[in-house]
Amino acid sequence: MIANSPSAQASARNDLHALEAENLNVFYGAFHAVRDVDLDIRRQQITALIGPSGCGKSTVLRCFNRMNDLVPTARVEGMVLFRGQNLYAPEIDAVAVRRNIGMVFQKPNPFPKSIYENVAWGAKINGFKGDMDALVEQSLRDAALWNEVKDKLDQSGYSLSGGQQQRLCIARAIAIKPDVILMDEPCSSLDPIATLRIEDLMRELIEKSYTIVIVTHNMQQAARVADYTAFFNMREDRAGYLVEYGPTKELFTNPKNALTEDYITGRFG
Amino acid sequence: MDNDVLTPTGAFPEGESYQKFVDGRKSRGNIWLGLFMFATLIGIVALLALLLTVANDAFGYIAIQNNIDPDVLVLNYHKDRMLAMPSTRASEDDAELVAGIAPRDQAIGFFGYGWYQQAAGDLNLLSVEGTLPTAETVASREYPLARPLFVYSSDVIMREKPQVTAFLKSYLDSAGTEVQAVGYFPIDAETTTANLEEWTRASRLTETTAGGLTPPPGDVIVTGSSTVAPITQHMADLAIADGFPGAITIESVGTDAGFKRFCLEGTADIVDASRAMHPLDISACQARSRNPIEFHIGNDGLSVVTSAKNGFVTDLTREQLQQVFTEATTWNEINPVWPEKKIFRFIPGKDSGTLDFFVEGVFGSDLASQSPETLMNILAANLSAGRIRALDAESPLAGRSPEALRQLVTDNVVQPKIAKSWTLLDSILHRGEIVAEVAQMPNAELKFHSWVNYNFLVSSQSSQPEKAGIRVAILGSIWITILAMLIAVPLGIGAAIYLEEFSSHSRFDQIIETNINNLAGVPSIIYGMLGLVVFVRVLSALTSGGLFGFGDPATSNGRTIFSGALTLALLVLPLLIINAREAIRAVPRSLRDAGLALGATQLQTTWYHVLPSAMPGILTGTILSLGRVLGEVAPLIVVGVSTYIVVNPKSPFDKFTTLPAQIYQWTSRPQPEFQHLAAAAILVLLILLLALNASAIILRNRYSKRV
Hints:
The complex is a heterodimer.
Chain A: H1 12-16, E1 17-28, E2 31-42, E3 46-50, H2 57-63, E4 74-82, E5 85-86, H3 94-100, E6 101-104, H4 115-125, H5 132-142, H6 146-149, H7 162-174, E7 180-184, H8 192-207, E8 211-215, H9 219-225, E9 228-234, E10 240-247, H10 248-253, H11 258-264
Parallel strand pairs in A: 3-8, 3-9, 6-7, 7-8
Antiparallel strand pairs in A: 1-2, 1-4, 4-5, 9-10
Helix pairs in contact in A: 4-5, 4-7, 5-7, 7-8
Chain B: H1 3-6, H2 15-58, E1 59-65, H3 70-84, E2 88-91, H4 94-101, E3 107-112, H5 113-118, E4 123-125, E5 127-128, H6 135-139, E6 146-154, H7 155-160, H8 162-178, H9 189-203, H10 207-211, E7 220-224, H11 229-241, E8 248-250, H12 255-265, E9 270-273, H13 279-287, E10 292-307, E11 315-316, H14 318-326, E12 344-348, H15 353-363, H16 372-382, H17 385-394, H18 402-414, E13 417-421, H19 424-429, H20 431-440, E14 444-450, H21 454-458, H22 471-502, H23 507-519, H24 524-538, H25 540-543, H26 553-556, H27 561-585, H28 589-597, H29 602-631, H30 634-639, H31 659-667, H32 672-706
Helix pairs in contact in B: 2-32, 3-15, 8-9, 8-11, 12-13, 13-20, 16-18, 22-27, 22-29, 22-31, 23-27, 24-27, 27-29, 28-29, 29-32, 31-32
């Protein structure tokens, strides 16, 4: 099992890193989707995964909270370390992993229930014993949604706009106090203003000691929001691999790899 | 242009040829549209035809034939009691009654008003319920023993036979004054005017032409009531004295026989009637294209009299009259202040219409108005002593309600039977012929009957169609449906959840899936065989309730509601599973991801999010299955539905029948009445189905709204 208090077992090394992928390989049936990825995610930073379509960046993201388990043919090799433990060790329960590593999806997917229930449900099933109303309010405030929905908490989550729905999903994810929030292109279905709000929100969450990993197609977004950026590409056989990883400013201003430079200057992808 | 290289001229239709091309597409589309509309139309027509067929058999005329007319039964009972009283003198000769009453101060009697008038000096006319018979109180029916008198003719006769028209004219002109001459009460001037207007309308003669109407030669035949006959005779005498050239024949056959001769046989021109025509009489007449015309020509008031020497009685109520003529022996029994003198009664004889009329007015002639004692006495008089003892042993007769006693009299003495029945279509199209046919049947009454009625719903099965009902079948259907759904729905949803959400899609799971899909197509009778072998025979101890100490395994033999419900549950299980799987599959993947990403287990995600979202779809499948269970009969026949059962099912371990089984059983009977019953049961089944479906749809909509 994974200990719930991050500091209790923290070593010097994973004080710095929230997640460490070591030699990560993912297969869908016979297809080798991700090859030999080593990637350390910095604690309380925003890490952006960028790269062309099909390069495996979403697959890598979904490895971090074992969402790939849900694909019947998927197989993961290698290690993902979280608090010093391999998430893919046989004794680890995927349910416990997802309780500590939350996820926000590409399309807003609130439950077909009230706004209140959307936020409270995760806490309820995870055995939350405290003041639920306070938790819901705090989560909605943290997600910068409280002022917009405080008068209609009993209305359906679907009654909100797309951007509001996505922030509701973020509120839902942070209500259970995860260490890490994974975001799989969270703004791709939103308009520019809603996108900016989400980006501001991400910065605020970092201040509240969350670690965020975001997959994005939008290089401007990565440049705007991310502290670190990882660039993925795929080989001829379409297997994805990590090309370059470093602080965002460095990667965008002074890429070490020619492929990275080609990609960020828009020559391919 | 560059484009011309890619699209050479003529590659796309243009101008006129494009218009033709579009028109062609449109007309081809219209042909298809026509076909689709035709298909829809066929569906609607089929539905209408179904409803029409059912309604055709579920409603229509019936002829009810009583063993004995209930009115006659009651009338005879009271007449017999009156005639059996001691110191009672009955005579057909009213003069004898007058002569008997006049000299005796303790005597009482009754007869037509005419006879009182002839001996008014010797007699003392009593008021009834505080009202004396006068022209006004009789005409307004305020006096209880009053009745209107009529003559009838028809417009056709009046137009074809001028002598009849002329006779009627003189009749109506003088009726207002002349009926007094024969001892009846006259009608008022308004009624006379109304009569003459009616005559004018029917004969189509204006006041002027009528004034110049010379009586043409020809005979007039009058038939009907003996009460009215003296008036008509008097009018005929007047007419002939006035120079009426033809002969006027007057028969006294009674009102009913008179109507029959006039309407059905057509042998009379005018009918004398001491009651108005019933709608049934009118329609019987119209069936022979005789439109009866009614003339109210006078009123009859029975006079209840004592001797002029009697100084104490002036008024009697109905109850007192009943006592005087059927119970009391001395006058002080009626009223303590009256002398203790013996009552001498002088009443018209058994065959007299006057006695009938007195009984009807004083005691009432319908069963509903009779006291429990009267009903019990009627029962005692008409049933064997052994039968009475048996009924008394069931529940003491004296303790039963008047309604229950009336029902007993109806069932055991009146014994109404459906002599013949007609479909709705026949009832509408051949009404006249039906009315004529029923008029010929002795003691028969034509009624428009809805085979679906309250008694039909609450009665149990019976070999007599007029008593048969579907209570047991409805209860059986409800038991079976609820039990089968309770078994099948949780199993079906559970299996669907496993197959959709948890199955590893291994070879084993795939075999199960294929089997379930195939099972949905297995004929239902085969499920019946399965039920017979497994639930009825092998698991008899379980399905008869013996295992739980319930029921009586020796009689039910496993042919119980439980067996039936299990069999039907198996029958609809594949349907439910397939449907629930479809519904669950339609829930978007993203909803599951959302739940799982919050650290929920797969079961929690399924239970809290997938299942509620799939519920509307699952309910749709449940509605379909419900209809299937409610309507299925073949497997139940194999499992052993009871063919004749009158006891309500009280537990799942009782024998049963269901609505469709009952319908099947009735349709296989040769008597047409049972076809009507089957149609009525079908109607009930349809309504039950619609109600169940509607409630399920409402439930589903509420579910959808909440999401």
